[in-house]
Design brief:
17% helix; alpha+beta
Length: 151
């Protein structure tokens, strides 16, 4: 039947074959069993307002991703400030880390740690403005609660 169609409609043959091939590729690709990136289906709970930042990551398994947040920090005398950090993590497997950088032209690191250490900490002094908070997870399973508040 296909041979008869092709012999009758020769001038449309290349276009028809291309369209059939494209349809097959789309259907096969759609159902190929490709896994969705787990990070794309997971959104942390985030509060990000001037001088207060809080992120909670919970109920995740084997998550590989990097979250980057821009946190507005109001300056004090001399346009420098620091922040109090409270972090609690229950890491069942994998690695979790956080890096906080200030608003200087070179984005100086004011706080950096793996999140296996729970407790309250302080950043070093940094330039006020919009700070960058980066949370990196590698094959992470567990819970993270991270809070930063300008001092």
């Amino acid at each position: 039947m296909l041979r008869r169609y092709l012999s009758v409609n020769r001038r449309y043959c290349p276009k028809s074959i291309c369209l059939m091939c494209l349809a097959i590729i789309v259907v096969v690709g759609w159902n190929s069993g490709c896994e969705k990136d787990p990070a794309s289906s997971y959104e942390p709970e985030v509060t990000n307002v001037k001088d207060n930042f809080h992120v909670t990551i919970k109920d995740v398994k084997n998550l590989d991703t990097v979250y980057v947040y821009y946190w507005p920090v109001e300056g004090s005398v001399g346009n420098t400030c620091s922040a109090n950090i409270d972090q609690q993590a229950s890491i069942q497997s994998g690695q979790a880390s956080v890096v906080v950088k200030d608003n200087s032209s070179t984005r100086q690191t004011v706080y950096q740690t793996d999140l296996s250490q729970n407790g309250s900490f302080q950043t070093t002094l940094g330039t006020s403005g919009v700070w960058q908070i980066t949370v990196s997870l590698v094959q992470f399973t567990g819970l993270i609660d991270f809070r930063a508040q300008r001092r």
